[in-house]
Amino acid sequence: MDLSTLLGLLLGFGSLIASVLMEGGSLTAFIAPSALLIVFGGTLGATLIAFPMENVTKLPKLFGIAFKKQENNAHELVEQFTTLAEKARKQGLLSLESEAQTLKDPFLKQAIMMAVDGMEAETLKNVLEIQLSSVEERHEALFGMLEAMGGFAPTMGIIGTVMGLVHVLGNLSDPNSLGPKIAVAFIATLWGVSSANLLWLPLGNKLKRKNHEEVAYRSMVIEGVLAVQAGENPRIVRQKLEGMVAKETKRGAPAATGEEEPAQKAA
């Protein structure tokens, strides 16, 4: 499990709950069915209008991906390709067929089998890059949907608040009830802004980060397979892939403060 996602949600919403209790407030006061309906129902409705049904139905799956720890390990991949390069130089490409059968990553397994089957390097590269591009586009559509929901939610909250205030101003006969009614009206804005900044936008960023990591990993697979197929020295293969890891780590340092990325294979 990706603990940062769980801890982030607990800390974010926990801080809101703690602040309410510290001020002597009641949590039940913030559970307004009408506000929740217009914020979450309205956000979902706007999302259905903006995105295909097949994307929206993947929302539960996206939550699962956000909580799932990324399995791809770039350093292990470097060691794996170094071993494959050594075996290929000593015993030939065909000897890698048995190795491929033991691999769990379907993309890596497919890439090695394509090389073993004698596919030309240029064709192999094009096929794998097309697959990678397709996965990346699909992921971008999904985390882009979450980011869009982060924009819809605050707006729906404001709409809910305006509707509540219209209702209040239309019933001014009882001045003593104005305060509580106005407070209830603003709960919609609270839920809209909170859900956007503690749920939809962070989850979108998390999936964008995961997508970035997966694309980088699969790019390493492509380079590694091409190097092994070309019969390059295992030391050269290692240096080439380690250079890609170092470059990605350098890029990821500033990105960790503001950038991120979705989605995994499951998208």
Proportion of beta-strand residues: under 5%
Which structural category do the helix and sheet elements fall into? mainly alpha
Taking the sheet with the most strands, its summary is: none
What's the domain count? 1
Count of distinct strands: 0
Shape: elongated
Protein model, in words:
- The chain is mainly α.
- The chain has one domain (33-255).
- Helices cover 78% and strands 0% of the residues.
- The chain contains 10 helices and no strands.
- The longest helix has 52 residues, at 178-229.
- The chain is elongated.
- Mean pLDDT is 84; it is low at 253-267.
Question: How do the helices and strands line up, and which of them pair or pack?
Answer:
Elements: H1 3-22, H2 33-50, H3 53-56, H4 59-67, H5 74-91, H6 96-101, H7 106-116, H8 121-169, H9 178-229, H10 234-255
Features:
mainly alpha; about 270 residues; disordered C terminus; single chain; about 80% helix
Task: Give the structure's gist in a few sentences.
This protein is an all-alpha fold and 267 residues long.
